[in-house]
Amino acid sequence: MSDMGDDGTMTVLIVDDEEIIRELARHVLERAGATVLDEAENGVVALERYRRHDPPKRPKVVLLDNRMPGPSGLEVAAEMLGEHPTQIVVLFSAHLDQRIRAEARGLGVSACVSKNDVTKLPGILDDLVAAS
Fold it and tell me: Taking 50 as the threshold, does the pLDDT of residue 21 lie above it?
């Protein structure tokens, strides 16, 4: 993973209503050298945890499920990107049809990744950060 944080690691906020998916994503990302700053189980908690980090300490990447209780991942992405348009947001979902992908692109979401591709996350995030 690219050098992103003060200590040379990429920082990530993982948002998913399924604990097992958060654990899996954390495991894959940490094995690749990323630092998971925080996790959230829904959109409301995600926005709260995202906003509590001062700008220089905000996660470089937000990994965001779309289908969750409360606001959807797309709704959360819209708020985050409305506040911080350069934030790297990756929609990480098992349900990615063309409509969702198009809406995500329109909001400024950096990428849509299927949960089936969890092992590809480190490379995808690295590429996104390098391009930002």
Answer: yes
CA atoms of 128 and 55, how far apart (whole Å): 19
- Give the H/E segment covering residue 76: helix 73-83
Domains of the chain: 11-131 (3.40.50.2300)
Half-sphere exposure of 68 (CA within 13 A, CB side): 29
Summarised one tens digit per residue, pLDDT across range 30-84 is 999 999 999 999 999 999 999 998 877 899 999 999 999 999 999 999 999 999 9
d(CA 86, CA 83): 9
Cα–Cα dist 120/68, whole Å? 22
**Per-state percent for the chain, helix, strand, coil, to nearest 5:** 50, 20, 35
Q: Among residues 57, 45, 32, which one has the least CA distance to residue 125?
A: 32
Question: Is the CB of residue 16 less than 8 Å from the CB of residue 46?
Answer: no
